[in-house]
Design goal:
Blueprint lengths: L10 H13 L36 E10 L2 E9 L17 E7 L6 E9 L6 E3 L5 E5 L2 E10 L4 E8 L7 E2 L13 E4 L5 E5 L33 E5 L12 E3 L1 E2 L17 E8 L2 E7 L6 E6 L6 E8 L9 E6 L2 E8 L10 E7 L13
The structure holds beta-L-arabinofuranose.
């Protein structure tokens, strides 16, 4: 992800972000304090209230991966901090150091912060930047998957385990062999097989892996031309959930004519923040388009795709990044996401949740956040 001052930004995102930045300039040195901005004051130009309110107000949280374990909702978010690093195109200002795990008994219920579930100092191979995590459960063990730069400054994906959903989690001594880039999302199919989806462009380094090995000299951004877009990656997980079981594959996304989406198709191509869910036998791969700030989705007939682009799930939120998870809870579907309502700063985000509705044919109604 990048600072929006240097990149192409959709008009709604820019208008909303500038309005909020203006409203929040007085908060610019605040760190980790309880925010007081309420939704009714968030957009001073249009008087529009955000669709939903932050779930947590006393710490900054982002990238919420939600799961229902044992009938309770658990959220595994990034824990945003004010690290004092100037915003840049590499995302260095997202310098997170731990994860707080949250839970709720019901969607409108109280949110409990269970404290630090994993700290970067307890990951033997970690260098910096603990980014968007995900979690899974199998055979009495909870797994926390996390991207972090190693000591050579290359993003890898690690796994940590716990006997409880809230941790503390113990990290494995090394990253998952063959893993790279960011934003792991682990999906367990109805037959019990688990898969990891991952990858992110620009600061997420996916574009540096085009030749199969890490190329530090690769251009910082993907080519903005009529060549096929760089795709997210996926791999089967071993029965112990700790390794890749077979090759890493591309998550191919096609248009409705069966042609791969192009790198220049910024409104539809994959950027980061992939998520997989299954509905009525179809596989729904959803993701962020990054510099156009959309959450979109594509569907397929198998976990490995190919997937056909379908449409927009969520219009741009306040802030540059947009990241989500989609979860069935009781008889409804919910989307967990984030924006920058509390801080007005790209790197200090707050998580939210709202219902996600489908039409009779399974397609997803677009949400305006
Ligand atoms: O939180 C750091 C990064 O920002 C995530 O890994 C991306 O998905 C974006 O939300």
């Amino acid at each position: 992800m990048l600072t929006f001052f240097k990149t192409t930004v959709s008009v709604p995102a820019l208008v909303a972000s500038l309005a909020l930045l203006g409203a929040c300039q007085g908060n610019s040195s605040k760190q980790e304090s309880t925010a007081t901005t309420d939704a009714s004051k968030a957009d001073t130009t249009t008087n529009k209230k955000p669709l939903s309110e932050p779930l947590v107000r006393d710490i900054y949280t982002a990238d919420p991966s939600a799961h229902v374990f044992g009938g309770k909702i658990y959220i595994y978010p990034s824990h945003d901090i004010e690290a004092g690093i100037t915003e840049n195109d590499n995302g260095d200002h997202f310098a997170m150091r731990d994860y707080h795990i949250l839970s709720m008994d019901s969607i409108n219920g109280k949110v409990t912060d269970h404290g630090v579930g994993l700290d970067i100092k307890d990951i033997p191979w970690a260098g910096r930047q603990l980014w968007a995590p995900d979690a899974a459960f199998k055979n009495g063990t909870y797994y926390l998957y996390f991207p972090v730069k190693d000591k050579q400054d290359v993003f890898r994906i690690g796994v940590a385990t716990s006997k409880t959903p809230t941790g503390p989690f113990k990290a494995e001594p090394a990253p998952i062999a063959g893993s790279f880039s960011i934003d792991p999302a682990v999906f367990t199919d109805t037959d019990g097989q688990a898969y990891m989806y991952f990858g992110g462009l620009w600061g997420g380094q996916l574009q540096r892996w085009q030749k199969g090995t890490y190329d530090p000299k690769a251009p910082e951004k993907e080519p903005n031309t009529d060549v096929p877009a760089l795709n997210a990656r996926m791999a089967k997980l071993t029965p112990d959930m700790k390794k890749f079981d077979g090759p890493v594959k591309e998550v191919v996304i096609l248009d409705k004519n069966g042609k791969p989406l192009l790198a220049s198709d910024n409104n539809r191509r994959f950027f980061e923040g992939g998520w997989m869910h299954k509905y009525n036998g179809k596989y729904y791969f959803s993701y962020s388009t990054g510099d156009t700030h959309l959450l979109v989705y594509a569907t397929g007939d198998s976990p490995a795709g190919p997937f056909t682009y379908q449409g927009v799930i969520m219009q741009p939120v306040l802030g540059w990044t947009t990241h989500h998870s989609i979860v069935p809870i009781k008889d409804k579907w919910y989307i967990f996401y984030h924006d920058t309502q509390l801080s007005g700063k790209t790197w200090l985000r707050n998580i939210k949740v709202t219902e996600m509705k489908r039409r009779a044919d399974g397609s997803i109604e677009t949400i305006t956040p």
